[in-house]
Amino acid sequence: MEAKDQTSQPPDLLKNRTVKKSEDFAQRNLPNALGPEKSLLSSMLQDPAEYIMRAQEMGLTYDHFYHPSHRTLFKVLYDLSESGQEIELVSFTQTLIDRELLDKIGGPAAVTEIYTYSPTAAHFNHHIEIIKDKYTLRNIISSCTDAITRSFEDQEEVAALLDEVEQKIFAIREGAEIEEAPSVKQDVKRVIEDFEEFLASGGAPMGIKTGYKKLDEMSNGLKGGEMFVIAARPSMGKTSFVMNLIEHICFEEKLPSMVFSCEMTSAQIVQRLLFARSRYAITNLRNGHAPTKDELNRIKRCAAEIAESKLFIDDTAGISISELRAKARRKKKEEDIQVIAIDYLQLMRSTSKQAQTSREREIAEISAGLKGLAKELSIPIIVLAQLNRGPENRGGTPRMSDLRESGSIEQDADMVGLLFRDSYYAEDQEARDESDGIAEMNMAKNRNGPTGSIPLTFIKELMRFETRAFERED
Question: What are residue 333's phi and psi, to 5 degrees?
């Protein structure tokens, strides 16, 4: 008789094996370190002034504790320390009685056992690291278990599921609290710190400076978590303007920056940046005018500067929101990028099933995804967007309602700047010559500041926007 091929077993038998393996995992205890947990609590009870503060400095929270009673004890210790109350065994036990928590943690004997447990406080820091490691392992197990379940249930939304799984693992790696929202107390503390920093700076922009004084004044700088949409009709100079911003941020502010270019290749982007920064008109070459020695030296210096910079360019055409988020997360982890620019939103795509039914729905998902990414990575994201033909019907004046294909862009954006050049809509050559170079950005939406016009000058041969002459700083 022929031997049976073990790999050709009926699918139901293979399924039963999988189920049995899952049940075996379900019966195992989650990673924990009860001894180090008791040791930490004992040290904090014996010398609260020293060890509660040290635990706070090392980022320990009650969520790191596995045993519910240990979690409760740490939370009470933390609350008493924050309120400035004296902590010693008798009053601490009374606090547990007053809060009706003593019986829930095992009674007075449990508190006494914790108090007398610590073999030595010399291992305090080491025990914190052990507890954090176990907490990380529990988070990994939880995320992977959820991913396994979702993989069986959501088989039609593979890209979205992969993006969600990666986001959770990235958050675990960064030590983020995925489930727990920050308390109002933490938010108040952060706001006060920002306010004090603003006062100390003498009113200087709190966020990343853009190189345009009035834009910085209106926006107070580009801040983490915000989405800045720059919208215009085609050929208005959106790409030039965003690269001017990135040039300043990357080379003057010395901050790692990333550009996603859906329209131009990375070589074309670098070419624009190189000649704009060296202030050499590329049209000179096309007209047969070779650069002078000084111009050539300037170009070489700028080329070396760009080559050594922390500027990263991804020119994937039609990149999906899931792929962009994955690449941005990795680059944030590897290079700590501080700003992202995207050229441009309508050339991106979403792979979710719902997005395939409606272009408006697809743009809405992309817009919401970019705003979510800005918050997740806590960096500003600059997004270029296309306007519809509305400005042509009004002599060129753009409005936010002209944002193409979806009103959700306007809703998700923290700032919306409408870029406009007078000469683009000039009726004749004389009018075009008179308005040549005159440009402005209308800050049509600014969630945290004023709106209004930002006067600009467009130097076409350099593909460069500058602050209008009479607005320039001394």
Answer: -70, -45
The C-alpha angle with vertex 259 and arms to 439 and 402, in degrees rounded to 5, equals: 45
Does 263 participate in catalysis according to the annotation?
Answer: yes
Any idea which residue has 């111009």 for tokens? 295
Question: Residues 318-343: pLDDT tens digits?
Answer: 888 878 887 888 889 889 999 999 98
* Catalytic site residue from 263, 305, 466, 471: 263
Kindly list the structural domains of the chain, giving each domain's residue range(s) and its CATH number in brackets, ordered by start: 8-153 (1.10.860.10), 205-471 (3.40.50.300)
Q: What is the layout of strands, in order, in the sheet containing 227-232?
A: 311-314, 257-261, 339-343, 381-386, 227-232, 415-421, 438-446, 452-459, 464-467
Residue partners of 50: CB distance under 8 A and separation at least 6: none
What span, in angstroms and rounded, lies between the C-alpha atoms of 376 and 168? 11
- Return phi, psi of residue 439, to 5°: -145, 165
DSSP 387: B
Angstrom distance (rounded) from CA 212 to CA 248: 9
| 433 band by pLDDT with thresholds 50, 70 and 90 | low
